[in-house]
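hey can u check if this looks right to u? its 215 residues, i copy pasted from the old doc so theres a chance i mangled smth
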Amino acid sequence: MTGEFPTIPDTGFRLPITQGKKPHRIHPSLLRLSLTQTEPARPEKSLSPVSLYCCPENPPALLDPGIRPGVRLTRRIRVQTASHPVSMNLLLDSNTLVWFLEGAPELSETAADLIEKRDSRSLVSSVTSWELAVKSGLGRLRLPYALGEEFSRTIESIGLEILPLSPAALARTARLPRHHRDPFDRLLIAEAFEQNASLISPNVIFDSYGVQRIW
């Protein structure tokens, strides 16, 4: 009939219904286009988040044993050159480091982009290696890679820099306010101040110390 659209088979496609309004009418040709040219659904990632800040009675999820470490290494490796001077210092906390190495979805896009920028100096504190070792030894965290010299070489090979714990940072830790008692966090905060670095972390407790946090 004139003015009527031809009948098409039911494809299961449904328009979203807006409360109080009729759905827009779509011409069948546009409907076929939307059904045939839509990207195929991506399989869900079975990545388990690594929570280093949870309570003992609520133990953290372990890294999926099927995850290959270094997923994010397939992306651009940052190389510092004279033509790319450092624009900012970044200090990664434990969660950020693990998620970055695994290419985990928990890592924010902002954090990933900053770490991978060629003109940023991304630091990994020796305190972070200590924290990972302690929590791994306590069974609160399982890592698919061994800590030690090999781990440090891997960190440096992808453009990250190991930051030794300095006496100045230790002294500054004693002067920090007592907002919380986590020794690893407090050392990271002190190092961030000493290095004039931004902390890359999802941990909002850092904000109470006045240190710049990015996430």
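The two ends are 58 Å apart (CA to CA).
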